[in-house]
Design brief:
The protein has 302 residues and is α/β, with parallel strands linked by helices. It contains ten helices and ten strands.
Length: 302
């Protein structure tokens, strides 16, 4: 094998990570044919096919996955260093960038960042993203940390070669409740009194929705779904203002319960929502991240 061409390897790394030849070519300001040609030269120099090409679709071969793991170590540390230099290695002010799944409970996010609010010389930024963009931002070192109620380990079809990239820590596990207006609370055991009520539910593919409908099926009850949404912030507003019953973690409507605008009718058995912190492997971890992940989320239980 000839000496490794790191320029060609970098092009492979970007295409393997992005999964789109055209988009990478535009980002790197090279023609698509030139980019494709240099990746083929890398394959020839390695005597190894890196991609299976099916029309416009590129899929990593098993050999390509192994090469990507090395390329990620080589170039990932460079990107980490670049992000560190942009913030200043010896800056007086510590900066933390947190990516947040756009559909998560805002109360949970606030509880997580509470320890930062009174710290001197600390500045943090929150960025809301869809899940795939959240992981992409982490892999590009745009974020130091991401918050999600989806566990990466549970994903199907995770990008080739990324199985060992993510570090996931469960931050909290919240029971799921039925909540509703205080003036019509149901005192009878489920499902009596619940059959004729309107419901606000998380939209599919929510695990909470599936589990709740499974619980209803045990009692031969089909909930009358009036509204559904995949956004917890919206679910909170609908629960507060619609007069319907809602199924969600108590933390989502913590303020409304404290104010008496909503009450908890019952806690659903064996039904929980988990919240996770997601990171990628780094040479140097932010002390702020380490401190946050070691701090109990006491405000969730208030």
């Amino acid at each position: 094998m000839s000496r490794l061409n790191y320029h060609h390897l970098y092009y492979f790394y970007r295409v393997a990570r992005e999964g789109n030849l055209t988009r990478v070519a535009q980002t790197l300001h090279v023609s698509q044919s030139a980019l494709s040609s240099q990746i083929r030269q890398l394959e020839e120099s390695m005597n190894l096919q890196l991609f299976d090409r099916q029309g416009r679709t590129l899929r990593l071969t098993e050999g390509g996955k192994r090469v990507l793991s090395y390329a990620r170590d080589i170039f990932g540390k460079g990107e980490e260093l670049e992000a560190l230099l942009q913030r200043g290695m010896h800056a007086q002010e510590q900066v933390l960038r947190i990516g947040v799944l756009s559909t998560m409970s805002r109360n949970f996010i606030e509880a997580f960042i509470t320890p930062l609010l009174n710290k001197q010389n600390v500045r943090f930024s929150l960025y809301t993203r869809g899940f795939s963009n959240l992981l992409s931002g982490l892999s590009k070192h745009e974020f130091d940390l991401a918050l999600s109620n989806i566990n990466v380990a549970d994903l199907q079809g995770i990008a080739d070669g990324e199985e060992t990239l993510w570090q996931t820590q469960m931050l909290a596990r919240q029971p799921v409740s039925i909540v509703g207006p205080p003036n019509s609370k149901i005192d009878t055991p489920f499902p009596e009194g619940y059959r004729d009520r309107a419901w606000v539910l998380p939209a599919y593919p929510s695990e909470i929705r599936r589990a709740f409908e499974g619980y209803c099926a045990l009692w031969q009850m089909e909930p009358s779904v009036q509204m559904e949404t995949d956004d917890m912030a919206m679910l909170r507003l609908l629960a507060r203002d619609s007069g319907a019953l809602a199924v969600l973690p108590r933390v989502v409507v913590r303020d409304e319960i404290q104010q008496g605008r909503l009450v908890e009718y019952m806690t659903l058995p064996n039904l929980f929502e988990s919240f996770y912190a997601i990171r990628i492997k780094r040479q140097f971890e932010s002390p702020l991240v380490t401190e946050l992940l070691a701090t109990p989320l006491e405000t969730l239980n208030e």
